[in-house]
Specification:
By secondary structure, this protein is of the alpha+beta class. The chain is built from seven helices and twelve strands. The model has no long low-confidence stretch (mean pLDDT 93). The strands form three sheets. The chain has a five-stranded mixed sheet. The chain has a five-stranded mixed sheet with strand order 4-10-9-6-7. A two-stranded antiparallel ribbon has the order 11-12. Helix 1 runs antiparallel to helix 2, helix 4 crosses helix 7 and helix 5 crosses helix 7. The structure holds dinuclear copper ion (CUA). Dinuclear copper ion binds next to loops.
Length: 303
């Protein structure tokens, strides 16, 4: 949060430094005065001088200083909740992952993804937040402040990234057993790169090309994975778990918990409970190691 890559985070970081500087200066001043009256000049002072000191140093000075800091912090607030001007991203907190929908056209249909937020630089995107079951909180430290996600209610924020890069977001409201494992990747791109990515994200999943991936898809279809997960362009249309259409193109697996590799996918499929306690994803440890690898290769190939 002190290395801001977005306009809102820059404001928050300025606010932090101004407040910290103010606090340090005042702390030094108070301790200096205490030192002065106890060690350097411990003599009794005249009533007149004491009154001036109490009125000036105890009433006027703090009132003026605190009012100035208050005016400064209030003046920074309006931009923090400005309405977005283009893209709308709807994010829903689940246990313990993120349902993500991109709405480039508010009247159109959404492009569904999960566990990664992509945003373009140079424009203010509107972020609509919701939750199922329990309260979560959405936070991308390098881009802006936190906003709670509350079941049955819509909350919102907007973000204007200024720097291209890979960042990380995190749930910051205790939401159960795997709260600490509820993170997500954040990718900020130039508007052109973002547009190209969004067009790719809107397409159906690629069909497996090699024998191992084809075998993986057979196992996926035959194991009931499609009851919870959607892979667009196939028979898998489940809505319970994360959309897997372009799973392999995300930077992380299991909501910021694991790297997006075949071996991490194998670990995840074999024993999700160990990696994310309480997750609804069942273990597929009854599959043979070879089948597990094929399934992981198929999933990794969904780019
Ligand atoms: Cu979701 Cu903590």
């Amino acid at each position: 949060m002190l290395a801001p890559a977005g306009r809102d985070a820059a404001v928050l970081s300025d606010l932090f430094w101004v407040m910290l500087t103010g606090a340090v200066v005042l702390w030094l001043l108070m301790n200096g005065l205490m030192l002065y009256v106890t060690r350097i000049n411990p003599e009794k002072m005249s009533r007149r001088r004491a009154e001036v000191l109490i009125l000036g140093g105890g009433v006027i000075f703090p009132a003026v200083t605190l009012a100035a800091l208050l005016v400064f912090s209030l003046s920074e607030m309006p931009q923090q909740r400005a309405i977005g001007e283009g893209l709308i991203v709807k994010v829903t907190g689940e246990k313990w992952w993120w349902r993500v929908e991109y709405w480039p056209d508010p009247d159109g249909s959404p492009i569904v993804s999960a566990n990664e937020i992509r945003l373009p630089t140079g424009q203010r995107s509107e972020i609509e937040l919701g939750a199922n079951e329990v309260i979560h909180s959405f936070w991308i430290p390098v881009l802006g402040g936190k906003t709670d996600m509350i079941p049955g209610r819509k909350t919102r924020m907007s973000l204007e990234p200024t720097e291209v890069g890979n960042f990380r977001g995190q749930c910051t409201e205790f939401c159960g057993l795997s709260h600490a494992l509820m993170a997500f990747g954040v990718v900020v791109e130039s508007p052109e790169d973002f547009k190209a990515w969004l067009e790719r994200e809107a397409t159906d999943a690629v069909a497996p090309t090699d024998a191992q991936s084809r075998r993986g898809k057979e196992i996926f279809d035959g194991s009931g994975c499609g009851a919870c997960h959607a892979v667009r362009g196939t028979d898998a249309t489940g809505k319970v778990g994360p959309d897997l259409t372009h799973l392999g193109s995300r930077t992380t697996l299991a909501a910021g918990t694991l790297p997006m590799t075949v071996s991490a996918l194998e670990d995840w499929l074999r024993d999700p409970e160990r990696l994310k306690p309480g997750a609804k994803m069942p273990a597929y440890d009854h599959l043979s190691p070879a089948d597990l690898t094929s399934l992981a290769v198929y999933l990794r190939g969904l780019e």
